[in-house]
Amino acid sequence: MNAIKDTYKTILKVSEEKLYKDKNSKFYGYAFPVLTEDDVKSHIEVLKKTHHAARHWCYAYQLGTETMTYRANDDGEPNNSAGMPIYGQIQSFDVTNILIVVVRYFGGVKLGVGGLINAYKTTAQLVLEHSNILEKTINIDYLISFDYKNMNKVMRIIKEKNLNMINQVLEMDCKIIISVRKKDAQSIFEIFNHLFEINIKKL
Predict the structure, then answer these.
(1) Are residues 131 and 158 in the same domain?
(2) Fewer CB in 10 Å around end: N or C, the chain?
(3) Where is the domain boundary, 118, 135, 152?
(4) Residues in domain Impact N-terminal (predicted)?
(5) Contact 78, 113 (CB under 8 A)
(6) What is the mean pLDDT of residues 139-153?
(7) How far apart are CA 139 and CA 148, in angstroms?
(8) pTM of the model
(9) Is the model's pLDDT at 1 over the cut of 50?
(10) Is the distance from CB of 201 to CB of 143 less than 8 angstroms?
């Protein structure tokens, strides 16, 4: 049986700016944690204002933990000479929910496609090497509903299994939201599901 993959790697905060130079061209690299395409757009808009005199703002991003979506953009550089080399580094470092942008100031000397691929790849690599990459778990959230009289039963399991409670409303009709690592989710669901007068459902 295949082990369930329930971890992914990402960055928590914006990376430091990294500069790579080649034949008078300057390449500034940035990495941002992102969750949506709107996040991507807003970061690129800010960089275009910051580097309004630059020639190209090339980028790649990857979103998602189990189903991934990605995009690579050459922004006017020759086809596949910028976006894909950047995306290649995202794959190489095995990170997701990340946007890498490389801003280029043209230095007057053409680098050729090979030179461009190397410059964009190296800049992306530099940014990732200096980013704080960490591993996170893929979690499933459950809502547990029960009467107050069953409180001890529920809390005992939460304590025994060391479960993470995200929210609780404890009245006559009690509701607790727990977050469980994906690989443990089915067994935890079954424990609660087998209990009399206790309802559990996936959120």
Answers:
(1) no
(2) N
(3) 135
(4) 23-128
(5) yes
(6) 94
(7) 27
(8) 0.84
(9) no
(10) yes
Residue 157 lies in a domain: yes
**DSSP per-residue string spanning the chain:** -PPPP-EEEEESSPPPPEEEEETTEEEEEEEEE-SSHHHHHHHHHHHHHHTTT-SEEEEEEEE-SSS-EEEEE-TTSSTTSSHHHHHHHHHHTTB-SEEEEEEEE--SS--HHHHHHHHHHHHHHHHHHTS-EEEEE-EEEEEEEEEGGGHHHHHHHHHHTT-EEEEEE-SSEEEEEEEEEHHHHHHHHHHHHTSTTEEEEE-
Query: What are the residues whose beta carbons fall under 8 Å from the beta carbon of 20, sequence distance 6 or more?
Result: 26, 27, 29, 119, 122, 123, 126
Token pair 């794959």: residue: 91
Q: Kindly indicate the confidence band of residue 2, based on its pLDDT and cuts at 50, 70 and 90.
A: low
